[in-house]
């Protein structure tokens, strides 16, 4: 058992409800199977927060909520950690999952978990209404575990942001890198951007066409990057297109919501991907 897993397993034993933070744009890929496995083993209910819902496609987020809410012991809601109204709802939602934890002797003990960069620190700060954790758009900013008193008979323990998912599928790795859950040094931006381009051309061609003022018919991920480079003047000093710069432009547009509200996967697309992988493994 590695140290992050052991720390989480130990912390679970002393808590009543898991609050798992996921990125609403990729709830399948940004869920950590280890969190799910350990909380089921410990029989702990889970409040799944589809955070950054402000950046995700609302229709797809609704489908994900239905998907998660059909699971036993799970309550899923879409939130934006930047919206105080969304954050205010969280303690009451967690209470619904452990109604027996009331009174001074039995405070509701919640544990906050999730992969890096899904918004745990932002949520924690908002829940505490003061700045206790460093917020940053780089993975693994939260290092230590801490338990904080939220008042009204509730505590919140946060877990180290080092809980990497076991990335079993390349598709997940690309989605996580595009959404910045995987650090800058670990991946090649151009490859990540080309893969993101493929997804967006298939799912949101109109948003891409409008953002860059281009025709997208027949484009693949690489072709899209070339168009972005031309439209945004990304040129190398000696001449030729600077695709690395174009990749950064495209990734930043996606990450900051400039392309529009986008979800990279749906419950159906995830099932299809997993079925294809299983099929491949059988062959
Ligand atoms: P972590 O603890 O899980 O690693 O994530 P953290 O809170 O550090 O958040 C990572 C980035 O995601 C931050 O961006 C944060 O503001 C942003 N973020 C968190 N929740 C939401 C949300 O609901 N919606 C949107 N749109 N963004 C969210 P940053 O650019 O580094 O920081 P900042 O300049 O926004 O503070």
Question: What number is the mean pLDDT?
Answer: 89
| CATH architecture field of the largest domain | 3-Layer(aba) Sandwich
Integer tally of domains: 2
Q: What is the CATH H-level superfamily of the largest domain? A: P-loop containing nucleotide triphosphate hydrolases
Biggest sheet statistics: 6 strands, mixed
Uncertain ranges? 138-142
**Helix coverage percent of residues?**
40-55%
Trace the largest sheet across and list its strands.
3-2-1-4-6-5
Task: Report the radius of gyration as a whole number of Å.
Answer: 20 Å
Bound molecules: guanosine-5',3'-tetraphosphate
Number of helices: 11
Number of strands: 6
Distance from N terminus to C terminus (CA atoms, Å) equals 32 Å
Shape estimate: elongated
What is the CATH class of the largest domain? Alpha Beta
Structural class, by secondary structure, is: alpha/beta
**Strand fraction band?**
5-15%
Taken in chain order, the helices and strands follow as: HEHEHEHEHEEHHHHHH
CATH topology of the largest domain: Rossmann fold
Question: What does this molecule look like?
Answer:
- By secondary structure, the chain is α/β, with parallel strands linked by helices.
- It has two domains: 2-158, P-loop containing nucleotide triphosphate hydrolases (Rossmann fold); 170-282, Conserved Hypothetical Protein Ylqf, Chain: A, domain 2, CATH 1.10.1580.10.
- It is built from eleven helices and six strands.
- The chain has helices at residues 3-13, 33-41, 58-69, 84-97, 120-128, 170-178, 189-203, 205-212, 221-231, 243-255, 267-282; strands at 17-23, 46-51, 74-78, 108-113, 146-151, 154-158.
- A six-stranded mixed β-sheet has the order 3-2-1-4-6-5, sandwiched between helices.
- Strand 5 and strand 6 (154-158) form a beta hairpin.
- Helix 1 packs parallel to helix 2, helix 7 (189-203) crosses helix 8 and helix 9 packs across helix 10 (243-255).
- The longest helix is centred in the last third of the chain and has 16 residues, at 267-282.
- It is elongated, with a radius of gyration of 20 Å.
- The model is unreliable at 138-142 (pLDDT under 50).
- Guanosine-5',3'-tetraphosphate is lined by residues 51-52, 54-55, 80-82, 114, 116-122, 135-137, 141-142, 161.
């Amino acid at each position: 058992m590695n140290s992050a897993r052991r720390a989480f397993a130990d912390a679970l034993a002393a808590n009543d409800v898991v609050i798992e933070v996921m990125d609403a744009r990729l709830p399948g890929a940004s869920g950590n199977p280890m969190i799910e496995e350990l909380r089921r083993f410990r029989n702990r209910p889970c409040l799944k927060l589809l955070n950054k819902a402000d950046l995700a496609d609302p229709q797809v987020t609704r489908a994900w909520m239905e998907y998660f809410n059909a699971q036993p012991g799970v309550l899923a809601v879409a939130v934006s950690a930047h919206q105080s109204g969304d954050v205010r709802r969280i303690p009451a939602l967690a209470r619904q999952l452990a109604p027996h934890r009331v009174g001074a002797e039995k405070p509701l003990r919640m544990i906050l978990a999730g992969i890096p960069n899904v918004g745990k620190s932002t949520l924690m700060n908002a829940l505490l209404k003061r700045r206790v954790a460093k917020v940053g758009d780089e993975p693994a900013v939260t290092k230590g575990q801490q338990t904080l008193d939220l008042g009204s008979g509730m505590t919140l323990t946060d877990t180290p942001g080092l809980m990497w998912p076991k990335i079993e599928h390349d598709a997940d790795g690309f989605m996580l890198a595009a959404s910045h859950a995987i650090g800058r040094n670990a991946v090649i931006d151009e490859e990540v951007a080309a893969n993101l381009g493929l997804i967006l051309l298939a799912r949101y061609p109109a948003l891409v066409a409008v953002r860059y003022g281009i025709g997208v018919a027949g484009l693949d991920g690489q072709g899209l990057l070339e168009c972005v480079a031309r439209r945004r003047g990304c040129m190398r000093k000696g001449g030729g297109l600077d695709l690395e710069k174009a990749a950064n432009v495209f990734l930043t547009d996606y990450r900051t919501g400039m392309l529009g509200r986008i979800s990279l996967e749906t419950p159906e697309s995830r099932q299809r991907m997993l079925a294809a992988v299983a099929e491949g493994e059988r062959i």
